[in-house]
Amino acid sequence: MIIENDGVEASSSTAFLSRMLQFGDSMFPIGAFAFSSGLESAIQEGVVTDAATLRAFARTALEQAARGDGIALIAAHRAATSGDVDILIRIDAQAYARKLSDEARTMSVRMGKKFTEMGVEVVGAPLLRTWRECIERSVTPGCYPIALAINFAVQDLPASQAFLVHQYGVSTTILGAALRLMKVSHIETQKILYELTGQAAGMYETAATARLSDMAGFAPLTDVLAAVHARAHVRLFMS
Amino acid sequence: MIPAPFPPWARAEALGASMPEFASFQDEPPQMSSGTVGKTGFLRLGFEHRSGKTILANLERRVPYMVQRALHCDEQMPDLACVFLITTTGCLLQGDRLALDITLGPRAQAHLTSQSATKIHAMDANYAAQSQTISLADDAYLEFLPEPVIPHRHSRFISDTQICVAPSATLLLSEIIQPGRKHHHLDECFGATVLSISTAAARSDGRALFAEKLVIEPRRYVMRQTGVMDSFDVFANVILCAPKDKAERIHARAGADVNFAEGLAFGACRLPNDAGVIFKVLGHETAQVKAKVREFWEIVRQEIIGAALPPRYLWR
C-alpha cells in the first residue's frame, strides 16, 4: 500500500500562517518576557495562589484586552490597510490615554517600539518606516496593539489574526511569568492556555463591531495590583 | 421664555442612545416617559473668585436637580464655597436624565457633595443617565466628593463626565459604588444590569489627557473573578487632576496595599500625559472605603492648599 499526500491546500494561507507564527511567537524578541502584567504582585499579595486563580487572573486580563486594546487594534488595522497615518496617530493616542498606570504604559510603548523596529528590519514596508519615524520623533507614543496591527496589515494578514496574536500574547506573558513565579506545572499552564485561547474567536466578534469610543473595562483589583507593583521593593518583572 | 433649539441637557438625553451596552434598553417606561418635566434635571453652577472668596456667581436649575446657596462653612478653608447637590425626587428612576455643568473661574475654590447616597432603583424599561461637564480655569480648585451610589438590582445607569482642566488647576473627583443593598437581599450584591461610567479629561486646547470607561455588567463578566472585584464589595474611583510637582508628592504619599484580612485594597497610579493621579479603593464595607478616600482627600488638601480637613460629619 502506498501512503500518499493528497495535494496542496490554498498555498497563500500556508504562507500567511508561517508569517503569523513568526510574528505571534511568544519568543519574538520584543521583551514581553520582562513583564508579568501584574501577576508578580498578585502572587505576592495572595490574590493568585494556585492554577485555578491563575486561570481566572489570566482570563480577566484577556477580557480587559479584548474590550480595550483589541478594539484599537482592529481600528488600527483598518487605518493601516488604507495607509492613513493621521488616523493611526489618533487611535494610538486613544489607546495610550486609556492606560492608567505607568507600568501598563511602559509595557505597551516599549513592546510597540520594538515590534515596529523589528518589522522595519524584517518586513521593511514603507508604512512601518513612517510609523517608526513617528515614534522616534515623539509624534505618537507607539502602543503595542497599533504596532501589531500595522505590521499585520502591511503583510496582508487579516485583522482577526492580529487580534488572536494579541490575545495569545496577553495569555503567554502571564503564563510564562507564572512558571517562573509560582508553583505551577507546564501541563497546567498549557491547559489554561488551551482553554483561554478557545474563547478568543467570540471576543473577536464583539470587538470587530465596536467603535473606538466603546473601549471599556472593569478590573479594579488588577489596577490596584499595578499600583502595588510600582512600589514593591523586590521585583523580578517590570510590571 | 423661548425654548432654545438644543437645551443644555440635550447631551444627557442623547447619551444612552448610541451606547452599545444600552441598545436593548431603549423602550420607554410605562410610567412617565423620559425627558418629561420632573424627569430631566439640569444644574449649571458657575463659581468665581471675588473680593477674597469664592461665590456661586451663576446658577441655573431645573427640577429635580437643585441647589440652594453656597455656604462658607469650612473653618479650615473659609473662602471655599460649599454646595450640596439636591435631587428633589431623592433617587434615580428609569427614564431619568440629569445634566450637571460646573465651571470654576480663575482661583475659584469650591467643594461639592450630595445630601445622601444616590439610590438607582430597579428598572424594567429604559435606563437612568447622567451627563457632567467640569471646567476649571487657572489655579481653580474643586473637590467633588458625592456620597456613594447604590445601584439596586436590575438597575441600568450611564454616567459620562467630560473634564476640561488648566495645568495649574486641581480637581478631586470621587465616585464610590456599592454593590447594591447587600444586607437586604442576596440578589442585591452586584445585582445591577449595567453600570457604564465614563470619564475623559482634556486641556482647553483640546489635547486629550486620559480617558476611562468602566462598564460593569455582572451577568456578562463575573464580578467575583480574580483581578476584578475578587472578595471585595465596594469600589471607589478617585481622580485627581493636579499640577505635576504636587501630583508627584501626592502619589508618593498615597501608597498601595492589598489586605485580605482587613478587607481593604487600594493604590494610586500616575495618569498619562502628566494629568495627575488615579486612586482606587476596594473594601468589604462602605465605611472602610469612605475612610480611605477621606485619607487621600486629606493628603490632596495638605499638598495643594496647605489646609487641614474639616472634622467628620457625625452622620456621614
TrEMBL record, chain A:
<comment type="function">
    <text>Required for maturation of urease via the functional incorporation of the urease nickel metallocenter.</text>
</comment>
<keyword id="KW-0143">Chaperone</keyword>
<dbReference type="Pfam" id="PF01730">
    <property type="entry name" value="UreF"/>
</dbReference>
<dbReference type="GO" id="GO:0016151">
    <property type="term" value="F:nickel cation binding"/>
</dbReference>
<keyword id="KW-0996">Nickel insertion</keyword>
<keyword id="KW-0963">Cytoplasm</keyword>
<comment type="subunit">
    <text>UreD, UreF and UreG form a complex that acts as a GTP-hydrolysis-dependent molecular chaperone, activating the urease apoprotein by helping to assemble the nickel containing metallocenter of UreC. The UreE protein probably delivers the nickel.</text>
</comment>
<dbReference type="GO" id="GO:0005737">
    <property type="term" value="C:cytoplasm"/>
</dbReference>
<comment type="similarity">
    <text>Belongs to the UreF family.</text>
</comment>
<dbReference type="InterPro" id="IPR038277">
    <property type="entry name" value="UreF_sf"/>
</dbReference>
<protein>
    <recommendedName>
        <fullName>Urease accessory protein UreF</fullName>
    </recommendedName>
</protein>
<dbReference type="InterPro" id="IPR002639">
    <property type="entry name" value="UreF"/>
</dbReference>
TrEMBL record, chain B:
<keyword id="KW-0143">Chaperone</keyword>
<dbReference type="GO" id="GO:0005737">
    <property type="term" value="C:cytoplasm"/>
</dbReference>
<dbReference type="GO" id="GO:0016151">
    <property type="term" value="F:nickel cation binding"/>
</dbReference>
<keyword id="KW-0963">Cytoplasm</keyword>
<protein>
    <recommendedName>
        <fullName>Urease accessory protein UreD</fullName>
    </recommendedName>
</protein>
<dbReference type="Pfam" id="PF01774">
    <property type="entry name" value="UreD"/>
</dbReference>
<comment type="subunit">
    <text>UreD, UreF and UreG form a complex that acts as a GTP-hydrolysis-dependent molecular chaperone, activating the urease apoprotein by helping to assemble the nickel containing metallocenter of UreC. The UreE protein probably delivers the nickel.</text>
</comment>
<comment type="similarity">
    <text>Belongs to the UreD family.</text>
</comment>
<dbReference type="InterPro" id="IPR002669">
    <property type="entry name" value="UreD"/>
</dbReference>
<comment type="function">
    <text>Required for maturation of urease via the functional incorporation of the urease nickel metallocenter.</text>
</comment>
<keyword id="KW-0996">Nickel insertion</keyword>
